[in-house]
Design goal:
By secondary structure, this protein is α+β, with helices and mostly antiparallel strands. The protein has 2 domains: 114 residues, no CATH class; 227 residues, Porin, CATH 2.40.160. It is 28% helix and 47% strand. Strands 1-3-4-5-6-8-9-10 form an 8-stranded antiparallel β-barrel. The longest helix has 42 residues.
Length: 348
């Protein structure tokens, strides 16, 4: 029994060791077949060419050899007046080489048939990531103080991030409809100096799912294409947190000291729906079957984020001397990513 198992292992090992040599031999045979087919074509013996090359097209040619072989089969069908087979083979050629560009030495018969088809991308899928900077615009101020003696300001904290996927529909060679889903984190800071000696502040951060819808226009270009974007975005706040602080900056006062609390969950005090107008620009770099891109957008907030009924929360008002002001968020995003295009060929 051991002898049988040993013999089986030896046979399997020999087959495994021989596979690279068989593969190389197959490639050499296919290379010879291609040279033979090109010689036959030059001699006008075209009937044998498709059968000679078909097996190697499936497995055995490099990409360049496969293109040469496919073009040779198409030409042999054209010269043999087999138009249906030539068109069928051209459609197969365009499926595997949708971005093929005619070369100066392509025969006129092949070029004529090729030009009778339009190959175009009809959609693309993208993946991108990047950063954002956000701030807020106050619409109306509230608080347990005299608003006339306050100095209120908003500021950018530090870059946050977003990760998104895009579904892009080509409406023409220049216009696209873009549908996206983006996970976004934004943050901003609020500061209020009351009566010249009480400083209150809040750092607020949001985690959202954004659903931008936009149209883009591509300017002409070969490798590099600049574009413009116009659209809108709906966002759903998943959660919101605030770091609250009150500081009496007059150290000689009896009320001197700092009150601070980090990471307070304020999700129930924010409207979950965030709507923004969007404009942008970017640059695409052409790669096989897709693009690399850089994208810059500005989102202008259109919705108030504070729920009025939660404005006077005593857990915030008394220790931090703050009541939520009405505000909206604006933010700037910068992203980079990759898009893969799907093509379709059409007879003109």
């Amino acid at each position: 029994m051991k002898t049988i198992f040993t013999q089986v292992r030896i046979v399997v090992l020999l087959i495994f060791l021989q596979y690279p040599f068989v593969q190389v031999l197959s490639q050499n045979n296919c290379g010879d077949a291609l040279e033979r087919a090109e010689t036959l074509f030059d001699q006008g013996v075209i009937e044998e060419i498709p059968a000679l090359l078909q097996g190697c097209i499936r497995d055995g040619f490099s990409r360049e050899e496969k293109i040469r072989a496919q073009k040779l089969i198409i030409l042999s069908y054209l010269f043999d007046n087999r138009m249906y087979d030539a068109e069928s083979k051209m459609e197969s050629f365009l499926r595997t080489n949708p971005e093929y560009q005619l070369e100066p030495d392509d025969p006129s018969e092949f070029a004529s048939l090729f030009s009778s088809y339009r190959t175009f991308p009809f959609l693309s899928l993208g993946l991108y990531t990047g950063g954002n900077l956000s701030s807020a615009t106050m619409l109306e101020q509230f608080g347990p103080y005299n608003p006339g003696v306050n100095e209120v300001s908003y500021s950018i904290t530090h870059p946050e991030y977003q990760i998104g996927i895009s579904f892009n529909i080509f409406l023409s060679n220049s216009f696209e409809l873009n549908l996206e889903t983006v996970y976004t984190k934004t943050s901003f800071s609020y500061r209020n100096l009351q009566y010249g000696f009480i400083e209150t502040s809040r750092k607020e951060s949001h985690n959202r799912l954004d659903f931008p819808v936009s149209f883009t226009y591509d300017f002409p270009g070969e490798k590099l294409k600049p574009y413009l974007r116009l659209g809108a975005s709906y966002g759903l706040i998943l959660n919101a947190y605030g770091d609250y602080k009150r500081n009496n900056i007059n150290s000689s006062d009896d009320m001197a000291g700092t009150v601070e609390s980090l990471g307070i969950d304020i999700s129930d005090r924010r409207n979950p729906d965030v709507i923004a107008a969007m404009v942008g620009t970017g640059l695409k770099y052409k790669i096989p079957r897709g693009h690399l891109f850089l994208d810059l957008r500005y989102h202008y907030g259109l919705t108030e984020l504070v729920k009025p009924e939660t404005r006077w929360d005593p857990e915030i008002v008394f220790p931090f001397y703050q009541a939520d002001e009405d505000f909206q968020i604006d933010y700037l995003t910068f992203s980079f990513g990759f898009r893969y295009s799907f093509f379709k060929s059409k007879k003109l």
